[in-house]
Structures are given as C-alpha cells and as structure tokens.
Amino acid sequence: MTWWQISAAANAVIMAAYTAISVAIGRALWRSGQWRKNRLGLATTAIFFTCGVHHGWHTVHLLLPDHAMNVLTGHHMTGGGDMPGMEMGDESDRDHIAGNPMRLAFNDPSTTAWDIITAAAAVWYWTLRSRFPALVRGAAVFEDLKLRQAEEQTLRESEERYRGIVETTSEGVALLDQDGRIGYANTRLADLVGRGGPELPELDLVDLVVDEDHSKIIDGLTRARRDGTQRVEVGLCHAAGRPVSAQVALTARVGATGEVEGFLAMVADVTDQKIAEAQLRQAQRLDAVGQLAGGVAHDFNNLLTVIDGYAAMLLAQTDGPARADLTAIRGAADRAAGLTRQLLAFSRNQAAKPRAVDLNELVGGLEEMLRRLIREDVELAVRTGAAPATVWADHVQLEQVIVNLVVNGRDAMPDGGRLTIATDHVDLDAHESRRLGLPSGGQVVLTVTDTGHGMPPEVQARAFEPFFTTKDQGKGTGLGLSTAYGIIRQAGGHITVSSAPHAGSTFRVYLPVVAAVVDQRPADPGAERLANGDETILLVEDDPAVRELTERILTAAGYRVLAAANGQEALDLARRHPTIDLLLTDVIMPGTNGRQLADRLTKIIPDLPVVYTSAHTHGVLDERIEGAAVAFLDKPFTAATLTRTIRETLGAHPHTPHAMGRSAENPRPGRTVPIPRA
C-alpha cells in the first residue's frame, strides 16, 4: 500500500467524522431553538461541515481513475523522475502515481502522518458527541453573556441619561408602589419638603402632605388607578414649617399583565403662583372695599356738610345755653369728618394734606384710643420729649402709621408684653444720612418698641413688602407696614426695623424737623365770618339738601345764585342768563359730571373760574389742572371756608362779568390748584 492510499483512507475518515459532528451540532441547535441566535454554534457547525467537504474532496481526487484525472486536469501526465516515496510498491504503482497529480502531492510520509493524526482526532471528537448539547449550551451562554453585557451597558447608559434628566428637572419626581409608598424620589422632591433624599423611600406620599389634604392624595391615587392620570393641589409638610403649595400629577404605571403596578408622581412647586393669586384676590377685595368706602364717605360727607352748615348758621344767630349745644354738634360733625377722611385714605382717594404736626401732641392725642386698641395684657408706655417734635406731614396719615405700628407690635406679643412709643430729636451725620437716604441735620424720631417674639433676618428683609405677612391666614393682610413705609417715604422720611428672634422689635420713623407748630385751628367756630361778594355764581349740586344749604350760604354772603341739580340744567341756565362770574359744581353727578360740565361751559364762556366740591372724585379730576382759575373744596366744608374759597378764586380775576360767547383773546392769568388723587 502506498502513502497516498493511506492518506485517502485517512481523509475519508476525517470527512465522515467532520460531517457527522456538524450534523450533530446542527441538530442540537435546532432542538434547543438556538439555531437563529447562537451565532457561535452556527459557525462551529459550518466549520466542521466545510472541513468535511474539503477532506472528502481530497479523498475523491486521490481515488479517481487516471482517465478521470486526465479529464479533470485537461492533459495526460507521463512518467518523469522519481519522487519521494516511490520506492514503496511495484512498477505499476509508480505508473499510477505518475498519472495523478493529487497522488503525487499526497504520496509523502509526513503528509500521510498528519492526515492520520487528524483522522484520529476527528474520531476522538466524534466519541464526545454526547456532550455536544452542553457545548451548544455553553456557546449559547457565552453568546448570551456578550449580548447581555451589551444590553446592560446600553441600559446603564439609558439609566444614567434618564437619571440625569430626573435629578435636574425643576419638579419633584417619585415612583410609588400600588399603595402609594415611595420607592424612589429625586433630590428636588426632597428639597420641596426640606428633607434628605434617603429619608423619603419607604414613606407614604400622604406623609409629605398636610393633614387636611390627605384625602386629596388618597382620592387622587384612586382616580389615577381608574383613569390613568389625575392632578391634585395640596400643601406639603416642610421640615422647617414653611408653607409649600404643590401640584401633584399622578400617572398609573401598568405592567405587562395590564395591571397597575404603581404610580409616577410629578410634584411641581406652585407656592409663588398661589401667593400671587392670593395677592391679586386681596388687591381686588381691597379695591372693591375701597370703592365702597369711598362711595359711603361721599354720601356721608354730604350729610355732614348739611349738619355742620345748618349748625353753623344757627350758631351765628344764637346766644345763651343753646350755643354750647350747637358747638358740640359742630364738634361731632368735625370728628365724623375725620372718620370719613380715614375711609377715603383707605380707598386711596384722599389727597395728602401736609402741614406742621407736633408728634408729641399727635401721640398724646392718640394714647387713649391706642389703649383701647391693644389688649389688657399689653402694657403701653408713652414717652414724649419736652421740646416740640414738629414735622411736615399729613396728620391723618401719621395717625395711620402709628396705629399700624402699634397693631403690629400687639400682634407680636400673643402672651402679653410691653409696648413703648417714644419721640426724640437726633442729628444725622454724613454717614447716617447716606445710610438712611435722608439729608443730614435735625430729624424727629418716632420709636415703637415691643417685647414680642421678634423676627429673623430673612423676615426683616421682607417686612415692608406689600402682602408679606407671617400671621396666620385671615389674621393679617400684609399691608400695615408697607402702608406705613409708603406714607413715611412720601413725607420725605424713612422707617427702619431692628429685631432678633425672642428679643422683640423696634421700628424707628425718621422725619425732617420743621419750625414750631402754628395754631391752625380757629379759636371759635362761631367767630368765623363769611367772605361777602356780589358776583353771579352758577351752583350745580345733585344732593338737594347740600344744594339748598349752599344756596342759602352764598345768598347770605351777598352773591347772586343760579342753582341747578345736574349738568343739563346748568347749561340751560347759562344760556338764559347773560352773565356768570363763577361755576361752583359738585364733581360726581349723574349724567354729566362736574369736569365735563366745566369743559363745556368754558367753551361757551372762556376763562370761566371754577370751584369743584366733592368728597370722592373717583378719578374724574386730574391730579393738577392748569390754565384756568380752578379751586377744589373738600366736603364737608364750612360756610366760611366756602365763601373764602370763592372769594380767593374770583380775586384772581378783575371784577368783570363773563358774558356768553366772550372772546378769549386776552385770558386772565391762570393758576395751578392741587386736586385730590383718585
């Protein structure tokens, strides 16, 4: 037997073993269902099969007859020189070798030895066929491991990406189980409730909500389970006790079985929005109350005008004991007028009327009322200096400032304490004047000190902000200190606060000092005298009692009066009478108001002097009116004040009657008169 024949037999064994191995591995892949996803197993099968085919091809070529090889190779090989291994066999064998190139290539001991070793290995590998399923499983595990590692890497990247989104979002995020217990919460939610992140897991969502809103969360979870999503607005329990309003969006998380496995809670902080809405509602309520107060004050002042006017007329005609009674009536009317001024100040329709005010006298006059304002467990101490503490401001507004500061101090001492009001003089140096934004020099200081719970720095920083309050809901509007601040700044002063927790608070009001108070009150109301005249006055007043009283006062002072109840009557009277020297009109009237009437009449009678009267202008008049002789007279007014105002307004013009249609080529000098801000 020659070497090539042994190689042919070895290749046939290799072909059979490799083919059987590839079939066995393929069958294992098919039965395990891994033939599509186990790429390593498929590659192993393909390698064994192709190797089996390759060795089978060798076997076929070695065993083909010579004429077949001639056909395949396309030529006939003749004998040549000897080749290694030809010494085996007889002459006929050498002839067969010489005619087949494959035999020539494999007729070598070393090649034959390698084929025998490969055939032995193939047979040995085939004997291990019972372990092929485990091999397949191992390959699958290896392949699955690589796939799993890739998927886990992708999953980690996805988790990191979404965790970054969740942790940096402006809303709190929590994953809840079916019972509403928190499994995960981001740092934003922890910040909203003032707790550390590790504290939140295993807590129920309702544990983060104020007691009165527990039912909202429970009902929201029930609705979200049924409808898929639900939104509720609740208050959160902040660890520091700070009020936090939140909108919670609950979304059901559905599992593969279609059952709700838990919930996703998105918690948005809407505290600022709720505060803004509350401020808007408060402002709207205050505006409505202010409009009501202004209307009440207008009607009330009309009544006071009549009461005080007739009492003054009787006082001028009466002697004896009745005079004191009439004086008391006028005094009561004057105090009632002060109340209406406070109503108008609240409605922001009262113009500031600054004058020299002695703070010592003002505080002393308020002391009895302030004692009634505070509780019995609060001790009030008033300390005023010996020297006059005179400032230039509206005394009614200063009263409001003092009352606001006293009420603020009272509320800061729920368990009682001591409230001290003091006045003093200080001289501000350059440093203090720059710090306070005031001119250097003499200042009057009004100090209000309480022994209450005090304020931390963050509260002090916002003490004068409108609507800011630390009081419970319904117990404060947050306007007291801001109103005081606005009044003091309008008067050219400044207000400061110094406080510390559990150490009380001290408010200091700085106002520039002015000269001593000049007595601005008439010594005897009965001694008031009318300012007489003989001009023609067009009186327009819709209130019959006020119109009748005003007409009597003007007639008693010597004036000729044309009285009208509304704008249309006034226009008709103006057309029927050739001369009118002055228009005296109420501002707020049905139909044509006083400003509209004055505008129409001054087109007919150019440069006509006008005196407006009202307790509440409702924004009809501008803050200042220029170019014509204009005056404004607050209601209630006295007879002397009325006639004096008319006399001063007419005195700005030469005494020449105003004819209808008079030319305005040479207008008389006008003046600017302050009008109350509406």
From TrEMBL:
One of its GO terms (molecular function) is ATP binding. SMART domains: HATPase_c, HisKA, PAC, PAS, REC. Residues 295-515 form the Histidine kinase domain. It is found in: Cell membrane. Its main location: membrane. Residues 536-650 form the Response regulatory domain. The chain crosses the membrane at residues 6-28, 40-57. This is histidine kinase. It comes from Frankia canadensis.
